[in-house]
Amino acid sequence: MSDERSNQTRVGVIMGSDSDLGVMLDAVRALKQLGVGWEINALSAHRTPHRVAEYVEGLEGRGVQIIIAGAGGAAHLPGVIAALTPLPVIGVPIKSTATDGLDSLLSIVQMPPGVPVATVGINAARNAGILAAQILGTGDPEVRDRVRAYKKELGTSVESRNAKLMERVEKEL
Amino acid sequence: MSDERSNQTRVGVIMGSDSDLGVMLDAVRALKQLGVGWEINALSAHRTPHRVAEYVEGLEGRGVQIIIAGAGGAAHLPGVIAALTPLPVIGVPIKSTATDGLDSLLSIVQMPPGVPVATVGINAARNAGILAAQILGTGDPEVRDRVRAYKKELGTSVESRNAKLMERVEKEL
Amino acid sequence: MSDERSNQTRVGVIMGSDSDLGVMLDAVRALKQLGVGWEINALSAHRTPHRVAEYVEGLEGRGVQIIIAGAGGAAHLPGVIAALTPLPVIGVPIKSTATDGLDSLLSIVQMPPGVPVATVGINAARNAGILAAQILGTGDPEVRDRVRAYKKELGTSVESRNAKLMERVEKEL
Amino acid sequence: MSDERSNQTRVGVIMGSDSDLGVMLDAVRALKQLGVGWEINALSAHRTPHRVAEYVEGLEGRGVQIIIAGAGGAAHLPGVIAALTPLPVIGVPIKSTATDGLDSLLSIVQMPPGVPVATVGINAARNAGILAAQILGTGDPEVRDRVRAYKKELGTSVESRNAKLMERVEKEL
Amino acid sequence: MSDERSNQTRVGVIMGSDSDLGVMLDAVRALKQLGVGWEINALSAHRTPHRVAEYVEGLEGRGVQIIIAGAGGAAHLPGVIAALTPLPVIGVPIKSTATDGLDSLLSIVQMPPGVPVATVGINAARNAGILAAQILGTGDPEVRDRVRAYKKELGTSVESRNAKLMERVEKEL
Amino acid sequence: MSDERSNQTRVGVIMGSDSDLGVMLDAVRALKQLGVGWEINALSAHRTPHRVAEYVEGLEGRGVQIIIAGAGGAAHLPGVIAALTPLPVIGVPIKSTATDGLDSLLSIVQMPPGVPVATVGINAARNAGILAAQILGTGDPEVRDRVRAYKKELGTSVESRNAKLMERVEKEL
Amino acid sequence: MSDERSNQTRVGVIMGSDSDLGVMLDAVRALKQLGVGWEINALSAHRTPHRVAEYVEGLEGRGVQIIIAGAGGAAHLPGVIAALTPLPVIGVPIKSTATDGLDSLLSIVQMPPGVPVATVGINAARNAGILAAQILGTGDPEVRDRVRAYKKELGTSVESRNAKLMERVEKEL
Amino acid sequence: MSDERSNQTRVGVIMGSDSDLGVMLDAVRALKQLGVGWEINALSAHRTPHRVAEYVEGLEGRGVQIIIAGAGGAAHLPGVIAALTPLPVIGVPIKSTATDGLDSLLSIVQMPPGVPVATVGINAARNAGILAAQILGTGDPEVRDRVRAYKKELGTSVESRNAKLMERVEKEL
């Protein structure tokens, strides 16, 4: 697979604070694995609102097709972005110290009618990357084939680890 | 806009029980409004597991591109479907009598790595329909234009209702 | 007390949807009672983001000193406004159908460092109005005196209702 | 007690990911202690759905009488299995990083009418093993006697530890 | 099917208060439908503790094989019963006015090691009845066959209702 | 103060498992400090139900006046005891690994009409000891005076630590 | 039993707002039934703080032995009272519109070390009255005997209603 | 900026226990950074109620304009203070060991009508300090200018860290 970053950026990954990078890199890893071009930014809906608007409103013109946005706490970033673009926005709730990430999840998922955010699980940035590929796959058979292969591989890996399970069990008991 | 149902079905709407129809029709209404072909079924992951598998595995061959799945309580349907297809699955948590729909939301959104479900808000079937159109829009400029127009309209409607707000306020005070 | 609306608007009341008017009028009633000039709008952070920005960024120039923002569900409006102005923003979480208003409360209160929202209780728009007067009272002794008088009155009313409590008790037992 | 694994497998223990083995071994330990034959697998409802179906549908024919299924997060595995068999399914919610295991508990216990899962506490795999023995005990007096003896022993052990409590207390105070 | 009540009582249904009867009758209905003999009592772990002990400790001698216990609020009844018998106990959390039944669910499911309660969903007494039949089915092939038939019927009914879904949809749209 | 244990035992401290001793010793420490005679046991409502009944029903005859009962998880012990005695029972919810102690709190506090448990905060065994002394103080002026003195001391200690606060602040800034 | 109100007031019932009277009368009813003298007031910790202090600090001198305090929402009243007296304070969390009474429960029960509030269930004012009698019973054998009789009666009433349960069941099935 | 402490104290910072100092110093740091005079105390609503009243009622006379109050657990301090003064009170919920700080948040924010507390996020003392400056800014253009500058700086810092993000990403991948 050629280096996807030299290719067209199809997914813009964005997070509310660069302290979220550890979590959000999982989205990038999934995109790389599935051969989807990406770019990444840490911009805050609350500290750099105009910069976020400018960035988001420029995406469509540059051919970016999907946005993955991660945020913790009040976690407005995915919704704020969804307000500014007809592109689909995938939201990643990030667990911060308080209330177990439920605050972020509810802030991201409970959007008003007309402005959805496609929400994945708490800290589930890897799944955000895979979902982005699935979305692109609706219009791009090659990406869909990669998703299909990836999912098959997942199953194979589960089965091969299962084959070794009894060994581990016997050691433990 | 021509009758989208005579056209290609692009979105399969499915719910865990036909008692969820009241909520899930909002997804259909959004798809109709945005000119996206749909079909609808009520099949249960727990009562008709083989029928669900058969249905889901046939979708890609018939050209269906996205699945919208609504379910309440333990709400496994969206995840069960996501396990069976590389197509993107949009999950709608449906509020049943207990625990305010939080059980459904968590059952749908907290999927394991590799098998995402694009989750919208509790009972937010309308947003599921719009999200489906946004997803199709990544590969279909015409649909994306309809989403753009729809979002613009949303704003216009908010502003025109705002213009009449003071009248309502004066009556109430 | 002269009609406060013919006077300077000191507090901008804003809500995410005109369906929140029933709750948010309590803020207006409190402002009227405490002689504080107000204006009111229903603008959505998600459906009219640019209109919100334009409105908020114009407030300071018109001499508005505080914003009261109410929103339900994902409830981004107060935080989105706080991102755009150095004025203090009071947030009112509005209870919608799901999760008892806790989603709105957490979305409003859990703001990131640097961008606070002064949050009041769920549906507590009346308290938002009183808090606005208390805030203005830090720089305006006349308003502070009205707050002081209002609070004294509150106590008197509790005591006079208490004086009649035994009558009610005797009827019930 | 003879090695129960050379005997008839009566309980199939299954978990959604081999990372759950640490928790699920407690079920095996309880089964061993109560002389009930078992087998163990790590298969995912979401990554290996067909393998799960094949495995579950083969259990009854091999004389397996009960399934213990553990899963975390969205935790669909116990319910997915319950959909495929008339055998009783015991579900073990496994605590993952977010929301304290409440997501798993609700995903497992809130099953729709007709398809129950016998749910035990969060991470309570030991109790799942004991419950399996109690269930077998409804048709097998020997197993029931072992459960009775086990429960009696539990009480004796509590009382003998209680007898030494004052010593510990005196050291601490 | 002969009147199961003249037959052997195999399941003792018990609830903490006769105000829970509306919910708990669903367990009886399921047992009747599956041809399992039952009896029913309303006895309180907190108001009649000795009566509960006497009743539970007499069950095994009378050939009763399973207990279904429903309770709301602090909901100790299922656990108190499980402490007194080697028989499997199925717990039904009953939703009372506060905290949506989550208090009852946690009080029932979070049992200490050694004393499990097989918990079903909030208010899910019907599933408790079906689970009891599944448990009996581990030792009684006839009951297991009835469960199998019941589950098949469930699926058939879902499919036949699904066949009429489009009619309902067309009326609504 | 003479050794209160050689005196009359007025408070029976009991916990569901001796693993709760670390938390429950705080109750003993408070009782010692307030000169109230105590005894302590670790007995389980679920593993030693008859032993608990025997113990509780013997308390009144031995002149014990109050029971402090701590338990985690399903936490039935305080309620089970309250069912067996007219003495007041103080319940201490103990935080175990899951759901932050909220399960224990709800299991203890949400008792049915007629059988209250006087519940204190999660892990707040110290407060249980103080509450026991306050309760005894309703009939014993000497104990009430010790409580009064203790509370005064609390205030003095807060004020003296406050007097040194600025020193700590200056070091930190 | 003589009219307890003409006798010594032993329990001061207080609530944060006279809108809580409907709930709090259950405490009075229990006190009347158990022959304990009472008085009742509606005073607010937040609207009449000095009046609350004056009232509470006068109770001991008038021979009042226990305070029952009910409050909803932030529900500070029981804790504020506990800060002002060595008498035991029983707290009744009152369910208001939002968050199901959990806010009130946590506000009342989670008191800091040194200042306990004996908390009963949400809206459980009846249990507060019974607990007050149990507390008085530690120093007053006559009241304790009434509690004992009351608890016995509770059991008898459960058993007599149970005796009629099958009639009701047969009507329903 | 001159040493603000030698100037007029405009904000009184207070916490319920000196163990909260680590969190509450963030409020002081923000006030220092924004040139606002402050003082700090650790006084308990429950252990030193009269000292709190005396302190709060003296603030207005000394020219203090705002109170920032932090508390954990039952967290009554901010509300107790708000009852005693017409000055605006900012509440900081402090996370203690149990229930993730949600107990403190609800205790602080859910105030009754007439007595608001301006609540910030859990442990968000820094935001309390910034909010205090914003409030003073309504009457003091110099402080408002400092807030404006501070917010601008926030944005600049986000953008400059974003400029270095790709370097960090490249190292990690």
Give the percentage of residues in beta strands of chain A: 5-15%
Order of helices and strands of chain A: EHEHEHEHEHHH
> Looking across the biggest beta sheet of chain A, what order are the strands in?
2-1-3-4-5
The pLDDT mean of chain A sits at 94
Distinct helical segment count of chain A? 7
- Give me the oligomer status: homooctamer
Which chain pair has the greatest contact?
A: A-B, 39 and 39 residues
Sheet of most strands of chain A: 5 strands, parallel
Distance between the termini of chain A: 44 Å
Descriptive report:
The structure is a homooctamer of 173-residue chains. Chain A contains seven helices and five strands; from the N terminus they run βαβαβαβαβααα. Chain A is α/β, with parallel strands linked by helices. A five-stranded parallel beta sheet of chain A has the order 2-1-3-4-5, with helices on both faces. In chain A, helix 3 links the parallel strand 3 and strand 4. In chain A, helix 1 runs parallel beside helix 5. The N and C termini of chain A lie far apart (44 Å). Chains in contact: A-B, A-C, A-D, A-H, B-C, B-D, B-E, C-G, C-H, D-E, D-F, E-F, E-G, F-G, F-H, G-H.
Set down the secondary structure blueprint.
The structure is a homooctamer of 173-residue chains.
Chain A: E1 11-15, H1 21-33, E2 38-42, H2 49-59, E3 66-72, H3 77-82, E4 89-94, H4 102-109, E5 118-119, H5 125-137, H6 141-163, H7 165-172
Parallel strand pairs in A: 1-2, 1-3, 3-4, 4-5
